Amino acid sequence: MNYYKFFILIIIFFLCLDVNSQTQEVFPFGTAPSGADAAYKEWSPWSNPASISQSDQAMIKIGYENRYFTKELSDEYLGFVIPTPYFNIGGSYNFFGFTDYYEMMAALTIGKKFGRIAIGIEFDYFNMYLASEKNYHHAFTAQIGIQADVSKRLTLGASIFNPVFSKIKFEDTPRHLPVTMHLGADYEVINNLNLLFQLGYTLGNTIDWAFGVEYEVMKFLTVRTGIRGINYVIPQIGIGINFADFQFNLNVESDFRIGTILLSSLSYKF
Fold first, then answer.
1. What class, spelled out in words, does domain 3-211 have in CATH?
2. Where are the alpha helices (DSSP H) in the chain?
3. 140: exposed, middle or buried (Cβ count in 10 Å: 0-12, 13-18, 19+)
4. pTM of the entire structure?
5. Per-residue pLDDT tens digits for 98-118
6. Separation of alpha carbons 21 and 208, rounded Å
7. What value does the mean pLDDT take over residues 120-128?
8. Which of the residues 30, 74, 99, 232 has an alpha carbon 20 to 30 A from that of 261?
9. With contact defined as beta carbons under 8 Å apart, do 25 and 206 qualify?
């Protein structure tokens, strides 16, 4: 292994040092500003699964998340939504890593809306490969979510990841996947201006939080900004561009520990 790959592995080690405390390092972020997606109604892979119930059109979405301008620390994901008369169904796939270490996730999501309440459940498959062990490690788990329109302008949301306490076995040593709960609110202050709040807790470990602002300047342009934190604050800015049935989103975060994180996605509704 050359020094460059060794350096990448060291970064991954610190990012995943406590997989029980930071699910936001495990999952790629979606469109919601600063990842405040508990009450955000636009679905993205691995966001609150209840948001899939809000889609009234079929959609396919691809995303790319680059951490610190390093190819080996990038997430690539693909997701789709298909509305049906009975429920909405979607699928997701995500890949993170490189030859000596990578993580792969796949999910099937089902959601349905009952009046003002939307519910969803996501079935997840997690696979990890370590070249040092020349072995694959995998686990099955789930995520459950709910969103409720309290009023015309206020939506509340909640989700829990890994309620079944799944774990991965490393050389006969089990390692639990994080059990994480999020509560959030999406409040439309005035037309097209939304404030998003989110508070999260990882069982037996840390509290994380996020605050975001989203404003639709024109039909084809949306601007976003926000901050999130666990032990320190990470600011974010972003834009969304709509053209016909296409939507392009780009968010940029500044992590003072190492550098810049780019989060982009392209979706098509039909």
1. mainly beta
2. 3-15, 23-26
3. exposed
4. 0.84
5. 777 778 899 999 999 999 999
6. 9
7. 93
8. 99
9. no
